[in-house]
Amino acid sequence: MSLANNPTAQAVDNVLIYIFGFSAILLLGITVVTVYFVIKYRRSKHPEPTSQVHGSFLLETIWTVLPTLIVLTMFWYGWVNYVGLRDIPPGAMEIKATARMWSWQFEYPDGRRESRLYVPVNKPIKVDLHSTDVLHNFFVPAFRIKRDAVPGMDNYLWFEATEPGTYDVFCAEYCGLGHADMITTIEALSEEDYAEWSKKLEPSGDPRGLVVLEEQGCLGCHSTDGSDGIAPSFFELAGQPRTLEKDGQTIEITIDEDYLKRAIRNPEVEIVKGYDPMMPAYDEETINNDDVQAVVDYLLGKAVAVVPGLDGRQLLEQNGCVGCHSSDGSEDIAPTFKGIGSRDITIERDGKEVTIKVDADYLRRALLDPEAEIVKGFAPMMPSADYLSEEEVEAIINHLLEQ
Ligand code: CUA
Predict the structure, then answer these.
(1) Taking the model in full, what pTM does it have?
(2) Which of 11, 57, 149, 238 is most buried per CB count within 10 Å?
(3) Closest CA to 157 of 141, 140, 145
(4) Is 180 a pocket residue for ligand 1 (Cβ < 6 Å)?
């Protein structure tokens, strides 16, 4: 008998029901017998005791041995099931959970990070618990699992979802102001849904710019290895001189961002000397401005390996930033992200107050070294985001500057 059908909940429920069952039977039995004796041997009916009883070897043996055996079975049953909670079943999938004030982050074996724990059903999941700051506690009532996340200590638990669904995860160790908001979910997906989900987010590792060049078929004419075919090669463009024909005149330019953007949007205006004007123009319908920027960055060698679809807003969610920083202007724990890209901000630096304009440099410092400059009116409690990759930091900064 169990109240839930997943293995960890069953283990806990079975022991609970066993102990609770015995307790209920004993409570009921003792109460009934007490009430019966109180009525049967009440004073009005038996004013004088008829006999005195002095001990009973048999009775005393029974009520000593029997409860001892019952308690021992409770211990044994509890122990066996507890060991089952600590032994990881073979074939378990391992996911690292990092707790920090005040959010959870889950890291998958392929390096993917999420703020919700997506798992397939019918597969044991081992969760490695870590904390970057203070004591937290990973508590999932539906699976009856609960374990501390302790800074500097490796801890773990496991569970297995047997039915797809959403299961609440709480922090069950008081960890400061945002403790009550330290909530996330386990999203148990059917095997097919999980396969679909993990495929969608699989990082290809290619820079976005290269992906766009491939998608748009640019590489059919432009090589990347320096060989000039029907069109100039993309090999090492940054800072190179180029001779162009424009309005019937020959001009010399240095390849830079502006030139490359013109060459994508209006390729017919400036023709590279020695080539025919055959490239079609790529308007905003075909390649949006972000993608043009990605292409240009890639061509100028500034490109970084970017997960397709890596976007700042998503990263802020995945990394739990939105647990403290609102986007609607409310400021309980940390400054809001609303309008942050165009705001003046007063910070304390080296014990002095300075008002500065929020820019990319400031945001980078605030992300990687939040202790150095504290926004006036807020407590220094943000952990450094130095676990982010350079391209993730950039994606976040770019997103924030647009806010
Ligand atoms: Cu984390 Cu309470």
Answers:
(1) 0.58
(2) 149
(3) 145
(4) no
